[in-house]
Amino acid sequence: MSEPLVVMKDVNKHYGDLHVLKDINLEIGKGEVVILIGPSGSGKSTLCRTINRLETFEAGSITIDGKELPQEGKALADLRADVGMVFQSFNLFAHKTILENVTLGPIKVRKTPKAQAEKRAMELLERVGVAHQAAKYPAQLSGGQQQRVAIARSLAMDPKVMLFDEPTSALDPEMINEVLDVMVTLAKEGMTMVVVTHEMGFARKAAQRVVFLADGQIVEQATPEEFFTNPKSDRAKDFLGKILTH
């Protein structure tokens, strides 16, 4: 593995009595694409969201590019600026145009001059295939287009790592591939990515590593080829048996 960019050590998280992450130890290398899969309630989304402290955790440590994740305040905001996040529901600002959505972070957080931010935003919108929609508002775009704008918005901050929390699960089936195609391209270009997804075809195509979670624990991790053809644990065999036979 290349030099680790994200390092999680003994991370534990509870919701009340529910122990949702149990002693998570995970290293993600620079330029690596890691797919988190597992049954509902296994802790995948929680794990993804702890990486930029959208979810707090009680024990353990997380470092990004050698810096420990701060608890709060400006240091956390600065670190979050280096971690792109793409959610299930696109989370675009409804009252701002597509272009304004993409330039907002660079202008406000990175203090990029407006003209420069707009030029870069247009390049990114071009890259995800929605440059012709720049003057429109989110409600005027399809779900797949909105999600591609959300990816462009994350990329505009030049993040060191991008987190995707089930980015296609709110989309109609015919829109899923247009978002996954953008993600496959990013993976090929060397973007470090952590992706929670149910899209096994994408996992096979884009991931360097599949991390399988169940009951808040990492049960096994392997290359996609190895995991899908020869899972080691009964839990993974059972899970794959259920999803791959449909």
Word description of this protein:
The structure is a single chain. The protein has helices at residues 44-50, 73-81, 98-108, 114-127, 143-155, 173-188, 200-206, 224-229, 234-244, and strands at residues 4-15, 18-29, 33-37, 59-64, 67-68, 83-86, 161-165, 192-196, 209-214, 217-222. With 246 residues, it is α/β, with parallel strands linked by helices. The protein starts with a strand and ends with a helix. Strand 1 (4-15) and strand 2 form a beta hairpin. The strands form 2 sheets. A 6-stranded mixed beta sheet has the order 6-7-8-3-9-10, with helices on both faces. Strands 2-1-4-5 form a 4-stranded antiparallel beta sheet, covered by helices on one side. It has a single domain (4-244), classed as P-loop containing nucleotide triphosphate hydrolases (Rossmann fold). It is built from 9 helices and 10 strands. The longest helix has 16 residues, at 173-188. Helix 3 crosses helix 4 and helix 5 runs parallel beside helix 6. Pfam families: ABC_tran (PF00005). Its main location: membrane. This is ABC-type polar-amino-acid transporter. Its EC number is 7.4.2.1. It is a peripheral membrane protein.
